[in-house]
């Protein structure tokens, strides 16, 4: 029993890689993903706050930092499996909750159990913070899939992930932070361009030519 | 639709690493594991054959090469989750079978579907070949965990895996090939020794001394 | 200009590895480290809160998530260099602040600049949250060096890092959360034991023996 | 002496990477390659069987699983070296056979030596199974080189490998399984297409537009 | 104290990767870079010698092999930081020299100190050998950035590095070896072409067609 | 044809890893190895020079930097194969020389061919520089195998490599630089010690205790 095991488990999240079984140019661990989601949620929360919403920052950060912790207990179950029947999904959620509860009771001293039971709850609820988490999680996934497409990963899966992530974000289109993302951030992402090798010839020739007149 | 997708999927098995989320000195992919299980099963089958048993080699190799293919559809579900309730286990099995069936119907031309439905069936049944597969699968797991323990991986999980693998092998202790493994192979594994840095001093001194008299 | 560049830069932190130029069994990125520090700070803050302290959670999470972001601009400067003279240290700090300010002015729209200038400030100040960050940062470093020592990394540097991290933690020994760490967590870490290969012989023999009487 | 060394050597094949000294996006080990060749040979054998041929499945699997095992003894000798003179080629083959024979005599108990001497023989002979192995080996090489070309590896070597592999396959064009490959599988491989970043703009705009009318 | 530590430190240079924090398809260590710079300098020196210049080969090799050794003491400080003010640059150089001096005095026996103090001096001075080093260092950087652009790395940084490297080379355009590089080597680099997947269709069809007439 | 191909091939040496097919904690490329051998040879040459020998530095550096370049053409052929018969060894050397000659004639302009034919010759001859190379090559191999043994690699091969490397070094025991190595450097290597986890308990307790009296 002990917090030591909990601290050690954080490092295990550095060794769970997302989307196994598909070729990727860049791997992302659950630990890194959780960091990025927390930072993106921070920005989205700031947008909502500037628009006059009341953000419970403590709650928002807790949701972002913990939202994938349970993968330590359950492993990586493919989404089509998880959602293949409502019955399986319900049972699976029960198992996940049970395992989390047992982990907390085994590793956490009494006085911390209540607060950690709250922290390990499913975070994507109907609160403002739950919705910000849902959006931030998908924005990071959008960036991960965009990174692969931009590096010319031929695997069609990444286009499917991009579309799935975007369509989930669009479900929250009434939120100010989603509108901000769609209008101010996404266009910049799409405007990113490649350096073509053919440009190199031109650039090189110009530079060599210019240097002759120095 | 097409065999092309099936051939391509073989390479995805090179990118699924066993036992994610735990520090390992050496990673093992599902593709490599399947290769090693097939080779170990080959040896175990040879022992049984020499002892007079009739081995259906075609069936044995099919079982060994295919036994983890379905991880492509389902992902890596941790064992405690899978076995947490008989109901969940039954549902998971149904989903796995359903997904395999759909994959075969989608990717394989009609004339191959029947033979591949057979090949993708759960292999660890009560036949001689099914039992050899069960043993070979655990022998490779024993070697994987032994490799980590021998490299001094401090993660206690690998001792648990070693014990779990050995205890499963012992369930089949009536089989000639298991007796052979226990008597002729396992003792050699356990006799492997470390090279201590302290030995280096002695070896070095002896060699330097000896060279003086050349 | 744009938040897009800021979001993209989060992924660059996944590719900065801590402590370059030394052999390590397990690498840790700045992104992963920031995640772990945020989670450790969360626990330490909970201890302080239970002890009756008032924790500004928003501030604590901001400090933890941002504390190493500036490495993107400055690179990894070895500590002995940074601290070689008070003058150099002062100049380096000025450059770091200047670069951070320029980055924010270039990439962030006006309305976000003030809040992000605050977020990117040096976090380890005299506030309760600043001190929790200082401790959490060193606890993660302690775990990183312990992980190497436990895996028998022969590099003496990791013992030096362990000692340096522990001695910084001890500077904050008046804090409730540090006392909790020293009394309840650190002893569990030190009690972790190795699995000796020699144990395997014994375990194996016992299991084989026991199975004979089944 | 012992089977233990043979079992352990299987794991060494996980650490021999094909085509060293050339930049690759995805590495393939000899163990993985052997697995894939066995699975491809399984399919090709099935095609031949459906066409009425008699397949010796035991032999086919043995050939596929063992065909590169001798690289453990000889290392990776570049093809132009191996074939630079008929004399050198003959000598290399003699050395390889001698080393394999010695390994079997040293590691395998008497009763297994004969069967393993057979299994480690050069597999690509004139039998149906030998020809299926020759084709399956090259199909996997074709997929490996295609994977690099598709990911835009600028190294011209991979085009040479693609051509060399295809031309070897074409030598066996009278075989039913080769005709099946050329007509049903290869066209699907060549039809695979890239996702262009430019498509993303269009897809994104359509999705955002559509969501406005929800 | 001892040469042993110096020999061991060479291996640390194998674990310092250039340009951290940016996605790269191929990593380059400081050890590999130093090797390549020494080989490129060898060629450039040969060009100068054939043109009648007197090359001090001992000096040239020493400069090339040692030019990045000090990164072991200072770490990887980003160029914009280093050059942000003349004062910082001066101070930083003083620290680097001081650290190098201390390292030599601590690790090298008296009789070797003078020669190694010379070897660890900043190599890019006004001598012929110093200028060859400056060019060789940038040619390797040009190749590293070209390798990324050719593999379609979307990171604009690599174009900036390419331009910066080329413009530094052009500063030395009066040197025979630079003229040789610009006229004989650079054009070959730029002429390198991609294999397009679309070519595969044509090549494949031609080969299949041709084989029909065998 | 062109120097461009020669420059590009240097990067291929970064992707040839030494001793494939054996588990290693730390990989070493041929490029890194060549760098380290050149630096070790530099030190050994300095010892000889201080002892009054005349060192041809140009020759020494050329030998060190080029000594494994031919692995690009031939691949990694295991030593027992190469030396299995004098006839094979002779033929193999002829092939290597032929391939090197052809490479130089194909890639190098006429005016450079002679000097590069000299540079690519087998370097380990009877000259002082040839003997220094032979020793430096084995010292680096000794360090590579020591690094594995020190990290507790259970593979007995590394002890064999250590012994083989040391016994080759001892063949040159009359050289001043070898005596220096044996007396001044090797003992320091062997004196390196492990950090035991058990020490951590003691160190930690002392530090915590001491901090109580601050």
TrEMBL record, chains A, B, C, D, E, F:
Record keyword Hydrolase present: yes
GO MF, one example: hydrolase activity
HD/PDEase domain: residues covered: 26-151
This protein's record includes keyword Nucleus: no
Signal peptide stretch: none
CDD domains for the chain: HDc (cd00077)
Pfam entry (one): YfbR-like
Gene3D superfamilies named among the record's database cross-references: Hypothetical protein af1432 (1.10.3210.10)
Keywords per UniProt: Hydrolase
Record protein name field: Hydrolase of HD superfamily
Source organism of this protein record: Siminovitchia thermophila
